[in-house]
UniProtKB/TrEMBL annotation, chain A:
Residues 302-336 are annotated as: Disordered. Belongs to the ABC transporter superfamily. It comes from the Archaea. Residues 5-235 form the ABC transporter domain. Keywords: ATP-binding, Nucleotide-binding, Transport. Residues 323-336 have a biased composition (Basic and acidic residues). It comes from Natrinema versiforme JCM 10478. PROSITE patterns: ABC_TRANSPORTER_1, ABC_TRANSPORTER_2. This is ABC transporter-related protein.
UniProtKB/TrEMBL annotation, chain B:
It is a multi-pass membrane protein. This is ABC transporter. Pfam families: ABC2_membrane. The keyword DNA repair does not apply. The lineage of its organism: Archaea, Methanobacteriati, Methanobacteriota, Stenosarchaea group, Halobacteria. It comes from Natrinema versiforme JCM 10478. Residues 19-262 form the ABC transmembrane type-2 domain.
């Protein structure tokens, strides 16, 4: 069975700007795949190349083995797209919009009507079926985009920042729905700015920056690439910084609090406790903090800028944080 | 066999204008009542017969052409441009319809609107003067061809336009002058100088108006001025229709090419 998405050296140029740079990516059938990257990373360009809204400059792109340009009809038939923008037909009621979209995909009229009702119920806006798109609230508009993507019963569902700007309730509803769809066998490609979303939903994520693929991994693998911090509160402040083994990358002392940076907090903690007790310290409390995916993401996308040092890259940041301006959070794993 | 997808898009396009008769069918009906009343009844009574027809009857075919092709053009250009402007044309572009199906659906629906307007104008004219159709089959073929031709031009206009003003410019500053100098309100026989006739023959609208006039009234300026040499003189309407059909196919081919390359539609 061919992969749901397979691109090889995919290039898209807009004049001098290279929006996609030799992007090679494979998404297997049935996967829940996340595409992460800061604004301008090329995520939407990548998606639009698959559905035919962007014409590639070079390379290959296939959907379930169908070339997106040579076999465009088969490739597009397999895809349901919920885009970022509200690009919905304003002339008709939302029910008719869905019927039309199903019709374009070859669904006969009576079945299209049934499917339209079904997906409107599924996303929770059936009672608005006779309204036009412009009369819906922002959250309902977002739901309709998802309904339109679903009405063709796609094998590959592409969600381009589906939860951008929606309230918590809707976000959770959407998460539940797409998880269900994935469990039913639909391959899902999700782009998002919310790291938590990717971490919660995706089997694998690709991190993109400036049109390039930085890395592809599972969320756990990515988190494994970061370091953990073990914070130990001692009964009494040590006279000097304890000399620990090679596992401790960095050790700092602040009064009774000792912080040790290690690769894997969970497996290193027992050894650290033994070493500290052997040195005569009494342990009052211990806390392990894992690196969040968000921190890994920031590190990976920043390290792409090879011409400047990390500190100067931070100072030259244009203020648009790839994590939507939120401070990096550290995840509490356990408290002893 | 027309695909389900094609029929869905064609139906959507038809419904868009059928549900808005105040915007689509009422304006040409009212405008043509005014044309017939002013040019036909008030002024026409003071004008001599042209080619053996009362003036009000002579101008019916030209007004039919004017209304039909303007509406076909306007419908296609608006549909494409409005879809681009609000980006909902993506619903079509991301679907598995072939580029030929997309173009034929847009053009076909717009041609239908042009044909309906043509019928409305004929009915309005019938209220002012008795009209009998001389060459029905030829008339239908001609109307289908010229409304499709201008729907095809409308697609190009909708793809090229950068704002709504561009569409107005195309309709008002290019289409209407050509139609008005296309022998709608006069006969080529009116001209006394040969160069005036020759200049008029460079205007493609002359052939469309003449073809519809031949279909409706059985009279052709092109036969009268002898555009084809003997013994082929009487074949002028058929030659016109053949050339117009070729032009239509060419324009539709350009439309399909533009869709295929994504001109004005994709990044």
């Amino acid at each position: 069975m061919p992969p749901a998405i397979e691109t090889v050296d995919l290039v898209k140029e807009y004049g001098d700007l290279r929006a996609l740079q030799e992007l090679s990516l494979t998404v297997e059938e049935g996967e829940f795949f996340g595409l992460l990257g800061p604004n301008g990373a090329g995520k939407t360009t990548f998606i639009n190349t698959l559905v035919g809204l962007v014409r590639k400059t070079g390379g290959d792109a296939r959907v379930f083995g169908y070339d997106v340009e040579d076999d465009y009809q088969q490739a597009r038939d397999a895809i349901g797209l919920a885009p970022q923008e509200f690009n919905v037909d304003r002339f008709f009621s939302i029910r008719e919009v869905l019927k039309h979209k199903a019709g374009y995909h070859g669904v006969p009229e009576s079945e299209a009507a049934e499917r339209a009702d079904e997906v409107l119920k599924r996303v929770g806006i059936y009672d608005k079926r006779d309204e036009r798109f412009d009369w819906l609230s922002g959250g309902m508009k977002r739901r309709l985009l998802l309904a339109r993507a679903l009405v063709t019963e796609p094998d590959l569902l592409i969600l381009d920042e589906p939860t951008a700007g929606v309230d918590v309730q809707l976000r959770h509803d959407l998460w539940e729905l797409v998880t269900e769809l994935n469990e039913e066998g639909t391959t899902i490609l999700l782009t998002t700015h919310y790291i938590e979303e990717a971490e919660r939903l995706c089997d694998r994520v690709a991190i993109m920056n400036e049109g390039r693929k930085v890395t592809v991994a599972t969320p756990d693998e990515l988190k494994g690439r970061g370091t953990d911090t073990i914070a130990v509160r001692l009964e009494s402040a040590p006279a000097r910084t304890p000399d620990l083994g090679a596992y401790a990358h960095e050790t700092t002392v602040s009064g009774e609090r000792l912080e040790v940076r290690v690769d894997d907090g969970g497996s290193t903690a027992p050894q650290l406790l033994n070493d500290l007790e052997a040195m005569g310290h009494e342990i009052a409390d211990l806390e392990i903090t894992r690196t969040s995916l968000e921190e890994i993401f920031v590190d990976l996308t920043r390290s792409e800028d090879r011409t400047v040092t990390r500190s100067s890259a931070e100072s030259s940041d244009d203020g648009e944080s790839p994590t939507d301006g939120r401070e990096p959070e550290r995840e509490q794993e356990g408290v002893a | 066999m027309l695909s389900v997808g094609f029929r869905a898009l064609f139906r959507r396009e038809i419904l868009r204008f059928v549900r808005r008769p105040k915007n689509t069918f009422m304006p040409p009906a009212i405008t043509n009542v005014l044309y017939f009343a002013v040019f036909g009844l008030i002024l026409g009574g003071r004008i001599d017969q042209i080619a053996g027809f009362d003036y009000i009857l002579f101008i019916v075919p030209g007004l039919v052409v004017l209304g039909a092709i303007s509406n076909a053009f306007e419908n296609a250009s608006f549909s494409i441009f409005h879809g681009r402007w609000n980006e909902y044309i993506h619903e079509t572009l991301t679907s598995p319809l072939s580029y030929v199906e997309m173009v034929v659906a847009y053009v076909g629906a717009s041609a239908v609107r042009g044909l309906i307007v043509g019928v409305i104008i004929t009915v309005v004219g019938r209220l002012f003067v008795p009209i009998s159709i001389e060459h029905g089959l030829y008339l239908v073929a001609t109307m289908v061809v010229i409304t499709s031709l201008f729907a095809g031009f409308g697609i190009i206009g909708g793809l090229v336009a950068r704002d709504f003003d561009d569409l107005t410019v195309m309709n008002q500053f290019i289409l209407r002058p050509l139609v008005f100098f296309g022998a709608v309100f006069y006969s080529l026989g009116t001209f006394e100088q040969a160069w005036q006739v020759n200049l008029s023959l460079l205007n493609p609208m002359v052939y469309m108006v003449d073809s519809v006039r031949f279909g409706l009234l059985g009279y052709s300026d092109l036969i009268s001025v002898g555009i084809l040499p003997e013994p082929y003189t009487d074949f002028a309407p058929l030659a016109s229709l053949a050339v117009l059909t070729a032009c239509t196919l060419l324009v539709l081919g350009i439309d399909v090419y533009l869709f295929k390359t994504g001109y004005g539609l994709t990044d």
